[in-house]
Structure formats: C-alpha cells, structure tokens
Amino acid sequence: MTEHDTVTLDRLRQVVGEIDEAKLVAILSLDPSLAEVEESAMRADGSADLQRECAGKVAQIVDILTADIEEEH
User: Fold this and answer.
1) Number of C-beta neighbours around residue 67 at 10 A
2) CA separation (Å) from 13 to 5, 16, 30, 39, 49?
3) Rounded to 5 degrees, what are φ and ψ at 33?
C-alpha cells in the first residue's frame, strides 16, 4: 500500500485506534490518503511537531478526531 492508496476501515483503525463508528464513517467519506490520515492522527494527539498549518482533508480529519475533546473544554 502506498501513501496515496484508498484507506480501508481496517487500516484507518490501525492508524487512529478504536474510535466511535460515526467518526470512522465521517473520515472514510472524505476518501483520504494514508498520508493524510497519518498526519491527521499525529496532529490530533499532539505528537506532531509540524510548523505549517493544516488544511483540506487533514484539517477536516483533525476536526473529526478532536470533536469530543473540544466539547469538553
């Protein structure tokens, strides 16, 4: 699998972990690349030391992954 291949449900779970089914469906509906999912997961958990702003699908996936966290604050 290359970083530009379509992400499957199983691969998505491997990258982002066990999350709510609705979030998985929302992410898959964006048809992201593996690279986009991996970058999003790193940004969402704070492990990414990335200087540039995220945009496009990455930003949308980060929003999906962090939706519950933002509601708690």
Assistant:
1) 13
2) 15, 5, 15, 14, 22
3) -80, 165
Instruction: Give domain status of residue 26, yes or no.
Output: yes
**Class of residue 50 by CB neighbours under 10 A (exposed 0-12, middle 13-18, buried 19+):** exposed
Q: Is the separation of the CB atoms in 14 and 40 below 8 Å?
A: no
Asked, for residue 15, whether it belongs to a domain, the answer is: yes
Domain count, the chain: 1
Q: Is the pTM here over 0.90, yes or no?
A: no
Range of the domain at 64: 9-72
Q: Are 47 and 56 in contact (CB under 8 A)?
A: no
Euclidean distance between CA atoms 44 and 11, whole angstroms: 17
Average pLDDT over the chain, rounded to whole? 85
In a domain, 32, yes or no: yes
